[in-house]
Design brief:
With 563 residues, this protein is of the alpha/beta class. Helices cover 54% and strands 10% of the residues. It is flat and about 85 Å long.
Length: 563
């Protein structure tokens, strides 16, 4: 598609004297108008003419000189229609030639994007919020990777704070009543609850917790630090099971504790910028009327979540001089990130705008037997297990012969949860309705996977029958406009999704492509036609399959060949 846009732009630039980059080519809202459109409003001023007049003149000139592209003026627009056979051969050719690289670019060459993602808390179950952060953050990372950025995914684990003083105290007292080694997170959760219950009667518990945390903050090696380290490792090992199922890895796993040695220098640096003040014994940065001050150090000398985030962002800047530093964190932390940015702005740091809070809404999971709840806690493994079991039921019903049904059910179930999470604009809350999430129909991951598998099966059948060789007759793609144009848009969709840190642009695009391809396939036979016809249609099938698989891969959803 890019070739067409480029040659239209170049021709427009010649006729208008404007730079090609300034000329915006769009997809017409109504596809019957054409494949591409140029709105002439931008030229009205320079040419001192009404846009419809400009459009008419340009259309006449461009039609004459662009090969295979017809230009027609409609009101203030020049609409372009690419000759069908040329459109088909070009787009399918592009996809098949580039294969798994289709849509990739070098846009981000030499630029680094840091992505803070997942970031659950030690000693607590990974919440659905952390699941969203993991899934959205990893998709953004893959999308940016595809555009040549150097990306650094950092899991900013919550492993610091007074709660660790409490946990160590609780493990010391009652550790032998629960299975800390075998079922860490559940055990620690139970101890944590018990700690709070018993602390109401027994004040020595809170005192012990405070002493423990002070010992940690002093950096002392000893029982407390050893115990904290062990709990961290055990919890991380449990989180790892979820990361494995989601196929998500991190470039750095850095707990908040990692930044301990940087906290002093961080506060000094902010002081040196002259923006700190004391308020009731605490050290703060005043952020004006719009928001509460940022607390750097409490009156008892301890630091806060914000202090550690400031230390981390300086560290990241120094290490990477990032183009962007994205925080994939729920919208409930909006204030925190506004404050973080406001401190950087008050310090006069030119790179402050590069720091972005990539916020997302809440995910509400259904109640019921799928969630083993302790208080209001949902264990994500249960969610993934239920999704897998539901998928297996559907597979057994629809395709009882399928080999590896269990492995594929895992791909479909986990894929369904991931896709559901990425389906709408991230800032929107998501509802979780099992029957919808795992359905093979409707706007779901399994629907996209199923489309992929269906296309794969056409390819298999063609190979078995020895069909598809020979020169494609590209005129046989008549009726496939929607598929071709969707395929052609993919590189732009990726670029835009990366820029907006918005994976839902890819999910809605892939759903659109699936609908187009399924619609086309219902009305056009692929196998058993004239060799040229079959060859062209098979090439389209393969191009669509590749691109759907590629898009799903970027989203973190597996694309099985059969299901
Ligand atoms: N651990 C935090 C929480 O669960 C999220 C951390 C997000 N990342 C950050 N750099 N603040 O609320």
């Amino acid at each position: 598609m890019q070739q067409f846009t480029d040659s239209i732009r170049a021709a427009l630039a010649r006729h208008t004297g404007l730079a090609a980059e300034e000329l915006k080519i769009e997809s017409p809202r109504d596809a019957s108008m054409g494949d591409l459109a140029f709105p002439c409003f931008v030229l009205a001023k320079a040419l001192k003419q009404a846009p419809p007049k400009i459009a008419a003149e340009l259309a006449a000139k461009l039609s004459a000189e662009l090969e295979g592209i017809e230009a027609v003026a409609t009101g203030p627009y020049v609409n372009f229609r690419i000759e069908r056979a040329l459109l088909g051969s070009t787009i399918v050719g592009d996809v098949l030639r580039q294969g798994a690289d289709y849509g990739a670019s070098a846009l981000g060459a030499g630029k680094t994007v840091v992505i803070d993602l997942s970031s659950p808390n030690i000693g607590k179950p990974m919440s659905v919020g952390h699941l969203r952060s993991t899934v959205i953050g990893a998709a953004i990372q893959r999308i940016l990777d595809a555009q040549g950025y150097r990306t650094v995914g950092i899991n900013h684990i919550g492993d610091w704070g007074i709660q660790f003083g409490k946990l160590v105290a609780a493990v010391d007292r009652w550790g032998d009543t629960v299975d800390v080694e075998g079922d860490t997170v559940r055990a620690l959760l139970e101890l944590y609850v018990r700690f709070h219950d018993e602390a109401e009667q027994d004040p020595t518990l809170e005192e012990q917790a405070a002493r423990n945390f002070q010992e940690l903050e002093r950096g002392e090696e000893g029982h407390v630090r050893e115990s904290w380290r062990r709990l961290t490792e055990l919890t991380l090992a449990e989180f790892q099971k979820i990361y494995d199922r989601l196929h998500v890895g991190f470039d750095q796993i850095r707990g908040e504790a990692y930044y301990e040695p940087y906290l002093g220098p961080t506060i000094e640096r902010i002081e040196a910028a002259g923006v700190t003040e004391m308020s009731e014994g605490a050290e703060i940065v005043d952020l004006g009327e719009d928001m509460p001050p940022c607390l750097l150090r409490k009156s008892d000398g301890t630091t806060l979540y914000a202090t550690r985030d400031l230390a981390a962002v300086f560290h990241r800047w120094e290490q990477f001089e990032f183009e962007r530093c994205l925080y994939v964190v729920g919208s409930d932390q909006k204030l925190h990130f506004r404050q973080l940015k406001a401190v950087l702005a008050r310090m006069g740091l030119a790179w402050e705008p590069r720091v972005e809070h990539v916020a997302f809404g809440m995910m509400r999971l259904p109640e019921g037997k799928m969630s083993s709840r302790k208080g209001r806690v949902v264990f994500l493994e249960d969610v993934l297990d239920t999704a897998r079991d539901e998928a297996l039921k559907i597979i057994r019903e629809k395709n009882p012969e399928l080999a590896n049904a269990e492995a594929i059910a895992e791909q479909v179930g986990v894929g369904a949860v991931v896709f559901n999470d990425l389906k709408r604009e991230r800032i929107k809350d998501i509802e979780f309705v099992w029957s919808e999430v795992v359905s093979f129909e409707g706007d779901t991951g399994p629907y996209a996977q199923y489309t992929h598998a269906r296309l794969a099966s056409i390819g298999r059948k063609a190979r078995e029958a020895g069909e598809g060789a020979g020169a494609p007759d590209w005129t046989a793609l008549e009726g496939a406009d929607g598929v071709l144009l969707a395929l052609g848009r993919f590189p732009d969709v990726l670029r835009s999704a990366g820029e907006h840190a918005e994976p839902s642009e890819v999910t809605s695009w892939v759903l659109g492509l699936c609908r187009e391809v399924n619609g086309w396939y219902t009305n056009h036979r692929v196998l058993g036609q004239e060799p040229g016809v079959t060859a062209a249609r098979l090439a389209l099938v393969e191009a669509a399959r590749l691109t759907i698989g590629r898009a799903l891969g970027l989203l973190g959803v597996a694309a099985p060949e059969e299901m």
